[in-house]
Design brief:
single chain, alpha+beta, OB fold (Dihydrolipoamide Acetyltransferase, E2P), 5-stranded mixed beta barrel, 3 helices, 6 strands, about 40% strand
C-alpha cells in the first residue's frame, strides 16, 4: 500500500502548468512539514516535500492555495527519473496529491473580520459542492 499523509504549510505560491502530452492542468508546490520532536536547545526542524496535483485538484490548488496556508495532503509517493540537458540521469521523489484539506481557520486564510471560527473547508462546501477534486492520474509516465 502506498499512502502518504502530510500536514504542513506551503513554502511559496503553487506553480501551474499544462502537461505536454494531453494538456491537463498540473499544479506543483512545496510543503514544509515540522518534525515531531525538537532537540533541547535547538529550533524545530522541518522537511520539505514536493507535491503534484492534476486536473480538477490542480484547479482547486490554483484557486485556493497560497504561500503560508496550512493544509493536509493525502496522496501517494512516486519516484521518477529523467535525463537533464547535460545527459545526467536525475531522480525525483514527489507526492502525487489525491486529496487536499484545509487545516487553517477561515479567519487566518481570508482575513475574515466577522470573528467566526468557520473553517475554509466549510466555506468551500457552501460555494461549490458540484465537483470532487481528485486527480485522475492521466499524466503519469507509467
Amino acid at each position: 500500500m502506498n499512502k502518504t499523509i502530510l500536514l504542513g504549510r506551503l513554502t511559496k505560491n503553487p506553480e501551474i502548468k499544462f502537461s505536454q502530452t494531453n494538456n491537463i492542468k498540473v499544479a506543483t508546490f512545496s510543503l514544509a512539514v515540522n518534525r515531531k520532536y525538537v532537540k533541547q536547545g535547538e529550533e524545530r526542524q522541518a522537511d520539505f516535500f514536493n507535491i503534484v496535483a492534476y486536473s480538477k485538484l490542480a484547479e482547486f490548488v490554483e484557486r485556493f492555495l497560497k504561500q503560508g496556508i496550512q493544509i493536509c495532503v493525502l496522496g501517494r509517493l512516486q519516484t521518477r527519473n529523467y535525463e537533464d540537458k547535460n545527459g545526467v540521469k536525475r531522480y525525483v521523489t514527489e507526492i502525487i496529491a489525491e486529496e487536499i484539506d484545509f487545516a487553517d481557520s477561515y479567519t487566518k486564510i481570508e482575513g475574515n473580520t466577522d470573528n467566526t471560527e468557520k473553517t475554509i473547508s466549510e466555506d468551500l462546501k457552501e460555494k461549490d459542492t458540484s465537483e470532487d477534486f481528485i486527480s485522475n492520474g492521466d499524466d503519469l509516465p507509467f
